[in-house]
Specification:
Helices cover about 10% and strands about 25% of the residues. By secondary structure, the protein is of the alpha+beta class. It has one domain. The protein binds zinc ion. The site of zinc ion has 7 residues, from loops.
Length: about 55
């Protein structure tokens, strides 16, 4: 999950939803504050967390 800094506030966005925001990211110059693998985080768009299990 990446934390994006956007004009309307910080948003957590998963990699699967990121392409849907590509245009907005470019237009509004969003930038990634940092990336974190934390199961409790929820994507602002799909409301899901990082489901990948890393071992
Ligand atoms: Zn998502």
């Amino acid at each position: 999950m990446k934390l994006w800094v956007t004009p309307s506030g910080d948003k957590w966005l998963c990699d699967e939803c990121q392409p849907e925001f590509d245009e907005q990211i470019k237009q509004e110059s969003w930038r990634v504050a940092f990336e974190k693998f934390e199961p409790m985080l929820r994507c602002v768009h799909c409301k899901h967390g990082d489901v990948e299990i890393l071992d």
